[in-house]
Design a protein that fits this description.
Blueprint: H1 23-27, H2 33-44, H3 50-62, H4 65-93, H5 95-119, H6 123-131, H7 139-150, H8 155-186, H9 191-209, H10 234-261, H11 266-289, H12 296-310, H13 312-319, H14 325-336, H15 339-353, H16 359-387, H17 390-393, H18 395-414
Helix pairs in contact: 2-7, 2-9, 3-4, 3-5, 3-8, 3-9, 4-5, 4-6, 4-16, 5-6, 5-9, 7-8, 8-9, 8-11, 8-15, 10-11, 10-15, 10-16, 10-18, 11-14, 11-15, 12-15, 12-18, 13-14
């Protein structure tokens, strides 16, 4: 749906911030935004901790990476099924009313997993406990929904907010796994999961307490609107999220295998993967400062078009440049710079095309697509490495990025022509 101007009969959700040349300072001059952002940051950091903590905890006590991988895959599959329903309830009844109890259930699932591992319970209990964590709300989506509510009709600041949120995602998935590994290694195997649960509960409680910036609950008024899955222009975006997720999933598995083949520890792979996230984070923050003209559709095509060739850099570094980790790290740093603009513009399009009252659900479907792509990319990347080589595995993220580009090109006219065009931030 196109951005609409605030109604003259309803109070503005935020007062105009004081003039500033820094768009991020202008963004956080809006009353209440700093408070909900801090709570959301605390709640989102565990998203990069849970799976790594679970793998270390289960593999360290049960001696089986296969079991650890199967348990985390089960949780991922359960999340893909449950998360859109949780988001639909959030849209209908409000963030605070649904997010807090949903987080409590997810926290109990994580604690149950910890106890089952600690007490030596049968393997099937691990699957059941981790599946219960699927009720974890999409905290990133709820934060983006607040920005969309506060900045309705202001394309400039919404662009900056989406860029900031993408940078936050990258930071959480950059530092989360490192923090989890440090806690599990320095303290005890269950420490990562325990700290992640505390952070999640604390962050969601702080975030939900900021009621002044919360979007109004739609009740059943949004129930009659079309599902995001059937809204014009949404299906090709979700397929693009699936392909982009495959880039992330395959890159992680292949890089770990490459570092192992070079005789380096897993920590080395974590460092160079963090460089990819750092490149994406930096690009996201810079992208939020830029004021680019033209439609978001055109910027999305340009971003995906840049991502495909940049993903060739790690392949070239691994096969043609001597195969060193330093060279590969630099290649990943550059390759990561294309992912944030792609995600930012995709989220902008998704926000404008999701039916009224179902924004959390629409963004959660995007996250579901990403998670599904990560799982598929991990599986395909691992298969190529096992049957070929770690160097050959870097073909998989290139293929996934190319697929995302082909999908965007094929659907730019046919798939998006029925959807309203989204005008991007004007040039200043």
């Amino acid at each position: 749906m196109p951005p609409s101007q605030p109604s003259q009969h309803s109070p503005s959700p935020c007062s105009p911030p004081p003039p500033s040349r820094n768009p991020y300072r202008r963004l956080f001059a809006i009353p209440g935004t700093r408070a909900f952002t801090i709570g959301n940051l605390v709640a989102r950091l565990p998203m990069g901790m849970f799976s790594v903590s679970a793998v270390i905890m289960i593999a360290g006590t049960r001696g089986s990476y296969a079991l650890a991988g199967a348990v985390t895959a089960t949780g991922l599959a359960a999340t893909a099924v449950v998360a859109p329903w949780t988001a639909r309830l959030v849209d209908r009844h409000g963030q605070a009313r649904i997010a807090v109890p949903a987080t409590a259930v997810a926290a109990l699932g994580s604690l149950a997993l910890l106890l089952c591992v600690r007490l030596g319970a049968p393997d099937w209990t691990l699957f059941a406990a981790y599946a219960a964590t699927a009720t974890t709300p999409n905290t990133g989506g709820m934060s983006r929904a607040r920005w969309a509510h506060l900045l309705k009709g202001d394309a400039d600041r919404l662009h900056t907010a989406n860029s900031f949120e993408q940078a936050v995602d990258e930071l959480c998935f950059m530092f989360g796994p490192v923090l989890a590994a440090l806690l599990c290694g320095a303290l005890f195997p269950e420490a990562g999961t325990l700290v992640a649960v505390v952070l999640l509960l604390t962050g969601v409680l702080v975030f939900s307490a900021q009621r002044s910036t919360e979007p109004p609950a739609r009740g059943r008024t949004g129930a009659g609107s079309a599902s995001p899955l059937r809204a014009p222009g949404i299906p090709p975006l979700l397929i693009g999220f699936l392909a982009t997720g495959a880039v992330f999933g395959s890159m992680e598995v292949v890089t770990i295998a490459f570092a192992d083949a070079q005789g380096h520890r897993a920590a080395a792979a974590g460092i160079i993967l963090a460089l990819q996230a750092a490149g994406s984070c930096a690009a996201g923050l810079l992208y939020g400062v830029l004021r680019l003209g033209g439609s978001a559709e055109r910027r999305f095509l340009l971003s995906v078009g840049a991502m495909a060739p940049l993903m060739c850099l790690p392949l070239l570094a691994a096969t043609l440049a001597g195969g060193g980790l330093v060279t590969l790290g630099l290649a990943l740093l550059l390759a990561g710079m294309a992912t944030a603009p792609t995600m930012v513009t995709a989220m902008t399009l998704l926000q404008h095309r999701t039916p009224e009252g179902r924004l959390n659900e629409g963004m959660t479907w995007a996250v579901t697509g990403l998670l599904g792509g990560i799982a598929c990319g991990s599986a395909v990347g691992g298969l190529v490495v096992e049957r070929g080589s770690a160097e050959a595995g870097y073909v998989v993220p290139v293929g996934a990025a190319t697929t995302a580009l082909l999908i965007a090109l094929a659907t730019a006219r046919a798939g998006w022509s029925a959807a309203p065009s989204v005008t991007g931030p004007h040039t200043t």
